Amino acid sequence: MKKIIKTPHAPAPIGPYNQAVLTGNTLYTSGQIAIDPNTNELVTNDLEKETHLVMKNLKAVLEAAEMTFENVIKTSIFISDMNSFQQINKVYATYFDEETAPARETVEVANLPKFVNVEISAIAIK
């Protein structure tokens, strides 16, 4: 059985998908980008601010499923320019304890939704 996870504290879906799906004890989040859920505005002019907003949106989705970053077992990071990796990784690292950080991959892609610089999704377990 699957449960759809929705929260007004993260951007609403812009297509036929949900913010996250919980099945059993496993949560699958959709990719989060830097849309401010309060204003619906995109933040892409400062990579660190953009990454923090992506992580805050991901945190809101986790919280809606009664989870935290401690529950995350895997993340996928999609970036538009691998030269941005160090800046993104610096911000990303502040949300996880290095000793218990999740598995992840980071992939450079040609384009992302709304031409953002970074998108992150996660898998978490209770």
TrEMBL record:
InterPro entries: RidA, RutC-like_sf, YjgF/YER057c/UK114. It comes from the Bacteria. Coiled coil: none annotated. Belongs to the RutC family. This is RidA family protein.
